[in-house]
Amino acid sequence: MASSEHPLSLDRDTDHVAHHVGHRHGGEPLLRALFLTLSYAGVEAVAGYWSGSLALISDAGHMLTDSTALGLAALAAWAARRPPSARHTYGLVRLEILAALANSLIMLGLVGFIAVEAFYRLQEPRAVHGLAVTGVAFIGLVINLIVAWMLHRGEKTLNTRAALLHVMGDLLGSVAALLAGLVIYFTGWMPIDPLLSLVVCGLILVSAWRLLGEALQVLMEAVPEHIELEAVGRDLARLEGVSAVHDLHVWTLSSGQVALSAHLDLQGLGEWPRILAEARQMLAERHGIGHATLQPEVAPGRGPQPLHYQPSRPNP
Predict the structure, then answer these.
(1) What's the burial of 281, exposed, middle or buried (CB within 10 Å: 0-12/13-18/19+)?
(2) Using one digit for the tens of pLDDT, what is the confidence trace for 48-70?
(3) Which of 161, 145, 153, 151 is nearest to 107 (CA)?
(4) Phi, then psi, of 266 in degrees rounded to 5
(5) Of all helices (H) and strands (E), which one includes residue 253?
(6) Residue 60 near residue 9 (C-beta atoms within 8 A)
(7) I want to staple 26 with a disulfide (CB 3.0 to 4.6 A). Which of 52, 90, 155, 298 is the partner?
(8) Helix, strand, coil share of the chain (percent; to 5)
(9) CB within 8 A of 158, min separation 6: which ones?
(10) Architecture of domain 229-309
(11) How far apart are CA 278 and CA 283, in angstroms?
(12) Residue ranges of the chain assigned to CATH 3.30.70.1350
């Protein structure tokens, strides 16, 4: 008599498929951001090569990487809206997490490339055309601000956060290139170009590492950070008619979608419809869990027991 809010349910009278998983994933802002970012990446690449600026070349490479990341994120947003199927009963919502994982890994690779190149530039400084770098970097800064604004106004999912991370890193790259151009133009001090590139690398590294950790936590089906598993178990055990709770699991399907499964020991099955309704309402309102699969169990000859929550333990 397991009961759940299943993502794919078949109506026996009409064979109607009802979908309970899925939400908007901000695909349109991602596509607009992709167009703007890709259109200016080529301009910065040519200007960086002509001016000899590592900061500008790095920003151009970053914008090109952003274009790939935004394209991947837009693809994931489209795929995540596909309905559940007999094989993928949750739909394709996990593509959002995979896209975020790929984006964070790409960012880490880019950081490594820029850091190595900056090291060589510090050993052998190269001449840089400061005025050209300043003008191109300023235009790139404006474009990145527009893209960041569009993504910030969109839906806050892990996917769009990953894309916004790329754009914010690129915005920092534009600021670094702008400062490098100004310093070189007014002072002629060339080491500022690779030094500012390294500063941007450090800022991007912290954010990319954090995003990578979050994506891996979701893929490992860890309990979301904002949910206390013990509190969820205690609240379920306090429901009238529930003797104990065990085999409790809570994990993230995708951004904003938390799932739960648990076994509830009951004193009898007569009150199960009421208990199920109260449990779902409590989980949604108190813990933000919208997808719950609850299994009622009644042990033969078992009378009322003290309310308790028994944490799940791995089999020896």
Answers:
(1) exposed
(2) 777 777 777 777 766 776 676 67
(3) 161
(4) -115, 155
(5) strand 242-254
(6) no
(7) 155
(8) 60, 15, 30
(9) 96, 97, 100, 214, 215, 218, 254, 255
(10) 2-Layer Sandwich (3.30)
(11) 9
(12) 229-309
DSSP state of 224: P
> pTM score, two decimals?
0.70
- Say which residue the tokens 């009421």 belong to: 274
- Tokens in use for 167? 């754009």
70 Cβ partners below 8 Å, 6+ apart? Answer: 30, 33, 34, 37, 163, 166
Q: How does residue 276 score in pLDDT terms, banded at 50, 70 and 90? A: very high
- Token pair, residue 283, equals 């989980």
Q: Phi, psi (5° rounding) for residue 82?
A: -65, 145
**194, 107 Cβ separation under 8 angstroms:** no
**Which regions of the chain carry the CATH code 1.20.1510.10?**
21-219
**Which residue type, as a one-letter code, is found at position 259?**
A
- Give percent above pLDDT 90 in the chain: 20
What end-to-end distance do the CA atoms of the chain give, in Å? 28
The lowest-confidence range among 4-8, 33-37, 72-76, 130-134 is 4-8
Give the helix ranges, DSSP H, for 52-191.
54-80, 95-123, 130-153, 158-187
Cα 135 from Cα 143, distance rounded (Å):
13
Considering the four listed CATH numbers 3.10.129.10, 1.10.3470.10, 1.20.1510.10, 3.40.190.170, the one that applies to the domain covering 21-219 is: 1.20.1510.10
* Beta carbons of 263 and 251 less than 8 angstroms apart: no
Instruction: For residue range 193-222, list pLDDT tens digits in order.
Output: 888 888 878 877 877 888 888 889 989 999
